[in-house]
Design a protein that fits this description.
Elements lengths: L2 H5 L4 H8 L4 E6 L5 H14 L8 E5 L2 H15 L7 E4 H11 L11 E3 L1 H14 L9 H13 L4 H7 L3 H19 L2 E3 H14 L1 H10 L2 E4 L7 H11 L9 E6 L14 H4 L1 H4 L4 E5 L7 H11 L20 E6 L2 H19 L6 E5 L5 H11 L3 E3 L9 H14 L4 H7 L9 H13 L4 H9 L1 H6 L10 H22 L4 H11 L2 H6 L5 H22 L5 H9 L18 E5 H4 L4 E6 L16 H15 L2 E10 L1 E4 L2 E4 L4 H5 L5 E5 L4 H7 L19 H11 L16 H7 L14 H9 L1 H20 L11 E4 L3 E9 L6 E6 L4 E5 L5 E3 L1
Parallel strand pairs: 1-7, 1-8, 2-3, 2-6, 4-5, 6-7, 9-14, 9-17, 10-12, 10-13, 11-12, 13-14
Antiparallel strand pairs: 15-16, 18-19, 18-22, 19-20, 20-21
Helix pairs in contact: 2-3, 3-4, 5-10, 6-7, 6-9, 8-9, 10-11, 10-12, 15-29, 16-17, 18-19, 18-23, 20-21, 21-23, 23-24, 24-26
The protein binds a DNA duplex (15 and 10 nucleotides) through helix 5, helix 10, helix 20 and helix 28.
Length: 830
DNA sequence: CCCCAAGCTTTTTTT
DNA sequence: AAGCTTGGGG
């Protein structure tokens, strides 16, 4: 593609941004103004005109998905050259740098990346060790504060020197100890990835220069969400302006969409850009190509209530469009029911498909009610984010095994799995190992090896591990040997999926789950099967990828990376997500739910002006995701912590000019609901078996809670509260109706029968045979009708992988297509 | 050392 | 409501 073609179809300011020839450029890009397009086009243009070589580009995006999309767009414009560009997130880029330069930091290249949960676990250990009271100073809060410090590039020594208050002195102690432990575990936490990369460049100017020489032009998307550490990283990569070798920098962002202050992002970076880079040019994009004027008017009105912002007015020439639709529901269930009905109507009457629709909420917990209702309505949906796949216990356990294999010093991982499944290594044995490790200044992993091979320890001049009972010693030895065997396997280059399989077998984890009577364990098996197929998929796309590479990949996935590709399926599915996750996305139809004070804006932000301003920006982000139709809903009563609360409408709703809203229902019958809506599950309020009686406890609590609010107090009487809930639950199984799933009792009882267990065992024994035949398909073929224990009947669409990792895609009667690892999935041929 | 039951916190948003 | 920690008994 030549330069003229590349510029085709750009408006004036866009074109100016793309062709700008100076060193530093800030593009202030309002929502939907084509910023991603400007970014990709600018890269193409600079390359097509010979200003820049592909390998000199570093483009930083917010998510891996955005990086992938950008690379695809560039490949369309530039062809193969797109592959030599460096396009990634801050975190991925830093991992790459840190792996390459680990020696300069005194780390081993096999370092582990700790996620938030790992950090908190480690902080908990640190607090215990430092005798810091973890009731007053919770691991969570401490880990959070350490994260803040790292995002601001404040080092432990530095912070310790400046700490004066008691709390800060304690925090300084914890931070120092935490950081030492991380290092001993050969691990970085999320914030370290950035901070250590900056420190690396600071302490080793020649390394910084190496990258600076190569990366001549850095482009940063979503610049308003960068934090101090990320800013310094960019500065380090660009170098000093007076240095003739300095790189060029293009940043794109919109201060009105800055929504990550809670993780250290600072709008200062975008606001002070011209000050930081004195010769910088600024180009503002205000023409919006996404939404109708009514949607923009609503969004503009809301954001205009924030003070001290650079005035900006989004406009469109695409016309007013539909009015926004407003709806006041009586309860969150009814709100969800409105959403479900409306989705059906949009499909029937307006020709929208499921994938055109997105439902947003402020907090993940709100998805529950909506999911329940969509299931009942038979509407296919996908929840993006929330309790992530990788946060599930069994997945974290499996990953901990893998981390322990790759990085023998990873104490958090080893502690997690040392007795999972139960192998007789309890607190006492673990304590003995820890004591041994501390005494000889070695890691927990080495201590385990010492126990397994006392001769080896003696060879190093250490004594034997003391304080282990013979029984525990045997267990530790076996555990150590297990890790060694798996390490061996990984070392000779076995693909990740194979290591996972072997690990699940040899550790007894699979055994534990498949013989368990806990109904949840069936799902856990499926999740592990899915992990294995994710690994198999990874090997397909990255044939040379090692187990360590796979773990990096997994550590850095983000919620948005899981959003279904709109091209993929004809109908697709409705997507549900938080507003944060929705940033950067757009949908023809958007429902913004829970527009209530205390929810959105969130309660925790109500007392602080800065946080309120951020909530307002969040609302702005939510509204500007919609292309054609925008729904805003709220519920007059919403259950939280298991009890209903009266709600009032969000202040943001009142900031929208009422002329652009068509209120489908503008008032809730609060009094009526207060009397009758005692139950949030199963719609029992309409058939109510209300026995009253047992509600005394909760009644008392609520009466006192609301007594300041005189209006509501009298509305409560016998019949509200939990009595009705227990009454209803005896005759009604909430959720999971329709959608082709098996009713709960049935799946639970069939679980108790040996059939499931044998199907797993069968799978395993046959798979041994399948190694001989090589296909691993266990007698299944494309087109076969099959039955699954929890998904019902379906048809096999195809296979992926081979041998033990063979995965079948099965389309089920519910419409869902699942990928199942044949060896463990409870799948039967019909 | 393991299991179970009772009690306690939890919900802001995430790379 | 649900998941997790804590404490007592086996």
């Amino acid at each position: 593609m030549d330069a003229d073609q590349i510029l085709n179809g750009l408006n004036e300011p866009q074109r100016a941004a793309v062709t700008y020839g100076g060193d530093y450029l800030l593009v202030v890009a309002g929502a939907g103004s084509g910023k991603t397009r400007v970014l990709t086009t600018r890269i193409s243009y600079l390359i097509a005109t010979g200003v820049l070589l592909p390998r000199e580009v570093l483009a930083i995006t917010f998510t891996n998905k955005a990086a992938k999309e950008m690379r695809e767009r560039l490949a369309k414009m530039l062809g193969a050259a797109a592959h030599s560009m460096w396009i990634s997130t801050f975190h991925s880029a830093c991992v790459r740098i840190l792996r390459a330069e680990h020696e300069a930091l005194g780390m081993r290249s096999t370092f582990t990346i700790y996620d938030q949960a790992d950090s908190q676990r480690m902080m908990k250990q640190v607090l215990a060790e430092e005798n810091i009271d973890s009731k007053t100073y919770t691991p969570k809060a401490m880990a959070f504060r350490v994260s803040d410090l790292k995002n601001e590039m404040i080092q432990p020594e530095e912070f310790a020197a400046s700490a004066t208050s008691k709390d800060d002195v304690i925090l300084a102690r914890a931070y120092t100890a935490y950081q030492n432990r991380l290092r001993a575990a050969n691990a970085f936490d999320f914030d370290d990835l950035i901070m250590q990369a900056v420190l690396l460049f600071r302490r080793h100017p020649q390394i910084a220069e190496k990258y600076r020489r190569r990366l001549r032009h850095v482009l940063v998307d979503e610049y308003q969400d960068t934090n101090v550490a990320q800013y310094q990283l960019v500065r380090a990569l660009i170098g000093e302006d007076r240095d003739p070798l300095h790189g060029k920098l293009t940043v794109v962002g919109d201060a009105d969409q800055s929504i990550y202050a809670f993780r250290g992002a600072t709008m200062r970076n975008i606001q002070d850009f011209e000050h930081d880079f004195p010769r910088a040019a600024t180009i503002v994009l205000e023409q919006n190509y996404r939404s109708t004027q009514n949607i923009l008017s609503a969004a503009n009105a809301v954001i205009s209530h924030n003070e001290g912002r650079r005035a900006k007015n989004l406009w469109t020439d695409s016309g007013a469009g539909e009015l926004l639709t407003g709806y006041v529901a009586d309860s969150e269930r009814e709100e969800a029911s409105f959403v479900a009905d409306e989705i059906d109507a949009l499909r029937d009457r307006c020709g929208y498909r499921y994938k055109d629709v997105a439902v947003f909420y402020r907090t993940n917990a709100q998805s529950r009610a909506i999911e329940d209702m969509l299931v009942r309505a038979g509407i296919p949906y996908r929840v993006v984010g929330g309790t992530k796949f990788y946060d599930r216990k069994e997945i974290k356990d499996a990953l901990a095994y893998l981390h322990a294999i790759v990085n023998p010093d990873d104490a958090v991982a080893i502690r997690r799995i040392i007795n999972e499944p139960r192998r007789g290594i309890g607190d006492k044995a673990e304590g003995a190992l820890t004591a041994h490790a501390r005494r000889w200044q070695i890691s927990l992993g080495v201590a385990i090896a010492d126990a397994a091979h006392p001769d080896l320890a003696l060879g190093e001049g250490r004594g034997a591990v003391e304080g282990l009972t013979p029984r525990a010693a045997k267990a530790v030895t076996e555990f150590g040997q297990l890790l060694e065997e798996l390490r061996e396997q990984a070392a000779v280059g076995a693909p990740p999926a194979e290591v996972i399989e072997a690990m699940l077998e040899k550790s007894g984890y699979l055994q534990m789950l498949s013989t368990s009577h806990d109904p949840q364990d069936e799902g856990r098996l499926e999740n592990l099967a899915q992990l294995s197929s994710v690994a198999a998929e990874f090997s397909l796309s990255t044939p040379d990828g090692t187990l360590a590479d796979f773990l990096d990949d997994v550590a850095l996935v983000s919620d948005t990376d899981q959003i279904p590709d709109p091209q993929a399926a004809a109908e697709g599915e409705v997507v549900l997500m938080t507003v944060h996750t929705a940033k950067g996305l757009e949908f023809p139809v958007v429902f913004v739910t829970g527009m209530e004070d205390g929810i959105f804006p969130h309660l925790r932000a109500m007392e602080n002006l800065d946080e309120m301003a951020e909530e307002r920006r969040l609302a702005y982000v939510a509204l500007t995701r919609a292309r054609q139709r925008l729904y805003i809903t709220w519920a007059a009563s919403r259950s939280q912590w298991g009890a209903p609360h009266e709600q009032i409408s969000s202040r943001f709703l009142q900031e929208i000019p009422q002329a652009v809203i068509d209120w489908r229902r503008d008032e809730a019958d609060v009094a009526r609901r207060s009397l009758f809506d005692g139950d949030r599950w199963g719609g029992s309020s309409s058939w109510g078996r209300r026995t009253g009686g047992s509600a005394a406890g909760s009644y008392g609590r609520r009466a006192s809670k609301w007594s300041d609010d005189g209006d509501f107090a009298p509305a409560f009487g016998a019949g509200t509260g939990r009595g009705s809930r227990s009454g209803a639950s005896s005759g009604f199984v909430p959720g999971k109706l329709g959608g082709g799933s098996v009713p709960r009792e049935q799946s639970a009882s069939s679980k108790a029968q040996p059939s499931f267990v044998t199907s797993v065992t069968d799978g395993r024994s046959q798979s041994t045979a399948s190694v001989d035949t090589g296909d691993g398909r266990l007698g299944f073929a494309v087109g076969d009708a099959v039955a699954h224990k929890s998904f019902g009947q379906g048809t096999i669409l195809g296979f992926e992988g081979s041998g033990k990792s063979t995965v079948a895609s099965v389309k089920f009667a519910s419409g869902a297509t699942k990928r199942l690892m044949l060896r463990v999935a409870p799948l039967e041929k019909l």
